[in-house]
Every structure is written in structure tokens, then in C-alpha cells.
Amino acid sequence: MLRFFLIIIFFFLTLNSNAEIKEKIIQNLKNTKNLNFKFEQNVNGKIENGNCTIEYPKKIFCEYARSNNKILVSNGKTLVVKTISSYYRYPLEKTPLNVILDKSILIKKIKSLKERKIDNNIINFTILENNNEINIFFDKQTYDLIGWQNTDMYQNFNITFISSIRKNRILSKNLFNIPAQN
Hints:
The chain is of the alpha+beta class. The protein has helices at 2-31, 97-100, 103-112, and strands at residues 34-43, 46-55, 59-64, 71-75, 78-82, 87-91, 116-118, 122-129, 132-139, 145-151, 157-167. An 11-stranded antiparallel β-sheet has the order 6-5-4-3-2-1-11-10-9-8-7, with no helix packed on it. Strand 3 (59-64) and strand 4 form a beta hairpin. Helix 1 (2-31) packs antiparallel against helix 3.
């Protein structure tokens, strides 16, 4: 009988611990207005890196290092990828970034999903949205977003890791303006 009670207590402590982590991730998202970070992105084995700023909801500005002055910008509705020689414009809602850049969608999904622990340091949630599977990763200690993994609209497998995260900074009002075409 004592063994039965110990199992029950362990079960509830584990459930409470998992619920606590999920709530802390949600609270951290709620308290975050913007993020500035370094990134490393692997798209089908091609590695790129640089710096990004996210402002919730749905805005992002990324400058890629050593890559034809490549930038990626979303003003909340449109996503543009621009280099010296190319210019691509997409409706944001058609991309996986639409979910990643909208903390209200993230919070709603996280509330209903079961988390998965990776290496005791990372919490993962798998979001299924508009025929896209998006894996979102959070640091178990800080509850910060630390990356995502998805397949883009061209069926490229994309893994993005973020580091050197700074939150709730004062941002330039023009940062998320869509650049003019070349």
C-alpha cells in the first residue's frame, strides 16, 4: 500500500513539474515584446548565420553575415528575402514564420500540447498548422525560445538555432519596413 501511495505522489509531482515548466514558458512569452539574437540556420545542409530582431506580433528583421547583403524582413503581413541580385516577396500567412512570429498562436498551441524534454535542457513542442509541422524549442532554465525546425514552402528542411538573446529593447520604428525591390 505504501508503494502505491509513493507511485501516486511521484506521478502528481511529475505532472505538476511539467505543468509548471509549460506555464513558465507561456509567462515568459507573454512578458516578451521583442527579441534580438544571433542565429545559425541550416537549410538542407547549407549553413548561414547572422542577427535577427523579432517584434511580436509577426515582425522580423534578419541580416545574414557574409551573404550578398541578404536580409529577411516581415512587417506583419509580408515577408521579403532580399539579396544584391534577388528579391522574393511572400504573404507571411503562407509561411511557417506566421506561427513562430505570433506569440498568441504559440501560447494557444503550447497550452494544448504535450512538451517533450530533450537532453534535460531543452523543451520541445510540435505544432501542426496549415499542413506544416513546426518544432519549437525552449531553454528549460530560462524558458526562452532557442530555435525552431520546419520544412519551408519549397520543401527545404530548415533548422534555426538562436543564441545571445536580449529581450524588450527599444527598437527603431523603421526596422520592419519592407525594402524596395532592386
